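step=encode ok
step=design start
structure_in=
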């Protein structure tokens, strides 16, 4: 059930019932439906969305509506456009409940009372439902004459028209309850060659019909006011040509109508009486606004030149629901837009529309104490008229280690016709990812803007890189294409988490390759591997710092200092080993002395967890060929434990590289190249020692640097990068001991060809 706040319910019964007692409605039809609906009108009663916060306490909450169809003494009929056709609902103004009606191919008509009508699908039965008693059985009217076409409802009378083109004859019929005389009446006073164009119920006993006749000399267009009780024309006048959809309105004193077509439509009015003898007055040039909706409000003519502004793709000054005083020509803007309006018995109007202040719904437009019309919200859909975000689906934490490094974020707009951008910004680096929002032409409903983020970010003009972990801001900027309301600007925050991998100095899980050139400048190349690329490539060479020529040995050692980022160690020419702790932003903290005496070693390598404690360890060989194991502690002040000798005879190798786990076990592994250029695999046992060596292959002597780069191709296995002179190769890991690397592909991680003397 649609609930009305308890404090307001008693006021609705006493006040709103009077306000919304309406005696006119408009015809509305639906698209065809696949299955027949039940015959009873008591459909599903559903909870409505909340009204805007600034709505009046007595405002009824209703579901989304496209237009108001009509109303009676105890409620009103409205329709909502959906993907499967129009959905009709009756809202009681005494209880605040809204009932969804069974779907019909014909839709539902209202005729100025609590009665609504529909045609049973594929039958000749027409049902009159008394919505003052929504559970009551409908009155069934059988009308089997297929020559008659149903046009609408007035009071409890069904309106049909017929036409014989060859005989140039037509008629309008009123068919009601009962059998025999009085239940099926031909309207008197219409010409024999009558051709129906359109109708509007004016009250339960009056309707206005637009028709045309083809006289021998010309085609002529007319308006006729018809009294239902006598089934006769009480007044008519000739008007100009117009489309079948052209609107008209009647008050006690005047007629108003739209005539013309193409780019020259006009809104006209005239005093009633004298069978059209009163001269027509042009109220407004409408241009191409042939579908202008018109209504009377005392001496005011209310109109919407271009209805359904909420789906338009361009701005216009013709969207507003406006009232023109026919006496002094003043105009008053009542709503920012409107779709339909129906009159009430006390001379007011009910209008489906919206304002920026109170949002979408049904407004009562009435004359104030000074005679000027004002609009009051009486039933709210809970949706804004201005372009708004009505829902945000952005997780507080986005784990980019999942879903192949991607994430789905979404925002829901209050309507479709908008354009703009969604921007994701990493707060620390300022790098962004962006999705463009283009205009869409859907005619109803909210719009979900999905952002299938691939986990990449960039600066303008830069190559995209994997998004770092940390704090992010999303910004949603959109412009309403119809020009109603201000631009939308919303923002929020979220956090990205991801695991720091081997050689990751930028906190984005992808390995970085470090190199030093001849002038002592240290460079960093961050790697990216996307599905469309054959191999990982650099996002661009970034200068880390200068002065690194003082070191004769540089080595990436993974996280040994306790933070998430990778670290490096550097040995100076005096044999002192220094720790450079990674900050996670691609740079390093000030160096910390590890200790002296490291010039006894001719090879140093690190980055593999050799003892299974989750921390990277260090290996070094001395001039005697002994291999020493330094356990990582995770303590920046003392990053290594006491050395332990784990082997001898390692002097036969001129290159040692810790590569992490490449052999398929959990322990870190080592590759070693002998002086003949043969590369050997030493599979880690998990206790700082290694299994007997396995030959990988020959021909590796041309490389000056072998780097255990980590998982650069993002397949879950660690890889190897080899550099020699101007040549570099990428070797993808297989996880297979007997063949740990795939065939080489061209390396793309060194952005610049400038000579380097250290790559690690």
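sequence_out=
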């Amino acid at each position: 059930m649609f609930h009305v706040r308890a404090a307001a319910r008693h006021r609705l019964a006493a006040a709103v019932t009077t306000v919304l007692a309406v005696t006119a409605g408009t015809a509305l039809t639906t698209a065809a439906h696949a299955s027949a609906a039940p015959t009873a009108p008591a459909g599903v009663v559903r909870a409505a969305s909340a009204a805007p916060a600034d709505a009046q306490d007595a405002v009824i909450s209703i579901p989304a509506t496209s237009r108001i169809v009509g109303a009676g003494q105890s409620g009103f009929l409205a329709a909502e456009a959906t993907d499967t056709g129009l959905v009709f609902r009756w809202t009681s103004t005494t209880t605040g409940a809204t009932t969804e009606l069974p779907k019909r191919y014909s839709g539902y008509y209202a005729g100025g009372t609590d009665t609504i009508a529909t045609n049973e699908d594929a039958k000749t039965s027409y049902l009159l439902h008394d919505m003052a008693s929504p559970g009551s059985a409908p009155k069934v009217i059988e009308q089997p004459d297929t020559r008659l076409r149903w046009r609408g409802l007035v009071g409890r009378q069904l309106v049909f028209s017929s036409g014989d083109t060859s005989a140039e004859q037509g008629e309008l019929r009123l068919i009601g309850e009962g059998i025999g005389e009085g239940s099926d009446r031909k309207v008197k006073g219409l010409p024999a060659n009558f051709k129906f164009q359109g109708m509007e119920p004016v009250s339960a006993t009056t309707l206005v019909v637009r028709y045309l006749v083809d006289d021998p000399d010309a085609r002529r267009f007319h308006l006729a006011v018809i009294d239902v009780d006598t089934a006769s024309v009480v007044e008519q006048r000739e008007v100009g040509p117009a489309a079948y959809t052209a609107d008209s309105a009647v008050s006690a004193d005047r007629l108003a109508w739209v005539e013309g077509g193409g780019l020259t439509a006009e809104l006209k009015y005239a005093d009633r009486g004298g069978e059209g003898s009163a001269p027509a007055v042009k109220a407004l040039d409408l241009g191409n606004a042939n579908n202008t909706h018109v209504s009377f409000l005392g001496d005011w003519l209310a109109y919407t030149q271009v209805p359904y502004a909420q789906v338009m793709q361009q701005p216009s000054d013709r969207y507003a629901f406006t009232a023109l005083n026919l006496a002094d020509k003043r105009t008053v803007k009542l709503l920012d837009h409107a779709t339909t309006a129906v009159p009430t018995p006390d001379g007011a109007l009910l209008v489906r529309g919206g304002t920026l202040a109170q949002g979408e719904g049904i407004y009562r437009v009435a004359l104030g104490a000074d005679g000027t019309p004002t609009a009051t919200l009486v039933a709210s859909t809970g949706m804004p008229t201005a372009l708004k975000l009505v829902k945000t689906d952005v997780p507080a934490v986005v784990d980019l280690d999942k879903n192949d490094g991607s994430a789905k974020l979404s925002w829901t707009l209050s309507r479709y016709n908008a354009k703009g951008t969604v921007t994701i910004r990493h707060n620390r680096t300022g790098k962004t990812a962006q999705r463009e929002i283009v205009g869409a032409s859907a005619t109803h409903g909210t719009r979900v803007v999905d952002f299938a983020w691939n986990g990449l970010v960039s600066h303008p003009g830069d190559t995209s890189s994997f998004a770092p972990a940390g704090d992010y801001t999303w910004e949603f900027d959109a412009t309403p294409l119809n020009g109603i309301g201000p631009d939308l600007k919303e923002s929020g925050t979220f956090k990205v988490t991801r695991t720091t991998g081997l050689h990751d100095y930028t906190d984005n899980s992808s390995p970085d390759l470090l190199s030093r050139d001849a002038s002592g400048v240290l460079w960093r190349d961050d790697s990216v591997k996307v599905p469309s690329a054959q191999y990982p490539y650099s996002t661009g060479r970034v200068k880390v710092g200068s002065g690194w020529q003082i070191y004769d040995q540089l080595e990436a050692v993974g996280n040994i200092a306790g933070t998430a980022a990778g670290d490096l160690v550097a040995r100076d020419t005096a044999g002192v080993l220094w720790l450079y702790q990674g900050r996670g932003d691609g740079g390093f903290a000030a160096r910390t002395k590890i200790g002296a005496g490291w010039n006894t070693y001719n090879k140093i390598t690190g980055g593999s967890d050799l003892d299974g404690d989750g921390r990277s360890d260090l290996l070094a060989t001395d001039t005697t060929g002994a291999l020493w194991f330094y356990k990582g502690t995770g303590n920046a002040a003392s990053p290594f434990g006491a050395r332990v000798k784990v082997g001898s005879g390692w002097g036969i190798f001129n290159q040692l590289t810790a590569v992490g786990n490449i052999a398929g076990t959990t322990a870190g592994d080592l590759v070693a190249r002998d002086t003949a250029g043969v590369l050997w695999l030493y599979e880690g046992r998990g206790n700082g020692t290694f299994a007997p060596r396995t030959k990988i292959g020959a021909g590796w002597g041309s490389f000056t640097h072998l780097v255990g780069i980590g998982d650069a191709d993002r397949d879950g296995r660690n890889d190897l990068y080899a550099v020699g002179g101007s040549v570099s190769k990428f070797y993808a890991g297989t996880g297979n001991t007997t063949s740990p690397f795939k065939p080489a592909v061209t390396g793309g991680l060194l952005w610049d060809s400038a000579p380097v003397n250290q790559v690690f």
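step=design ok
step=annotate ok -> The first helix runs from residue 6 to 19.
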